[in-house]
Design goal:
Number of helices: 4
Helix content: 25-40%
Shape: elongated
Strand order of the largest sheet: 1-2-3
Distance between the termini: 35 Å
Radius of gyration: 17 Å
Number of strands: 3
Largest sheet: 3 strands, antiparallel
Length: 113
């Protein structure tokens, strides 16, 4: 759990520097799951009124995906990870107040984008 990684020395570093580096915060399995969830969103059809996909013109002149937003209501895995109890508890501890997810998005950095 991420909350377990926030010991006193980590919290002191956060207070003094306002950033953290938490090495090995995710297991290989979790990284793989996040990749799969991102691929899922990348290849979903555009669906008005649901997740929002934004495009830009790539170097070859074709549309290429640059961002996906508003996917939390439609993706249980990412919802549980981004707005789940463990994540929000850790952030609440860092912020010293209740954390809430305000907005979610994935930016795609594709070649030429």
């Amino acid at each position: 759990m991420l909350l377990d990684r926030l010991d006193q020395s980590t919290l002191t570093f956060w207070t003094e520097n306002r950033y953290l580096v938490i090495r090995d915060a995710l297991t290989a399995e979790q990284v793989n799951q996040l990749k799969n969830w991102t691929y899922d969103l990348e290849y979903r059809d555009e669906t008005p009124g649901k997740w929002m996909k934004y495009f830009e013109t790539g170097p070859d002149g074709r549309r290429q995906l640059c961002r996906v937003e508003n996917f939390i209501p439609y993706h249980a895995g990412l919802r549980d990870w981004l707005a789940g109890e463990d994540t929000l508890a850790a952030l609440s501890k860092l912020f010293d107040e209740e954390a809430v997810l305000f907005k979610e998005k994935i930016n795609f950095k594709l070649p030429g984008g």
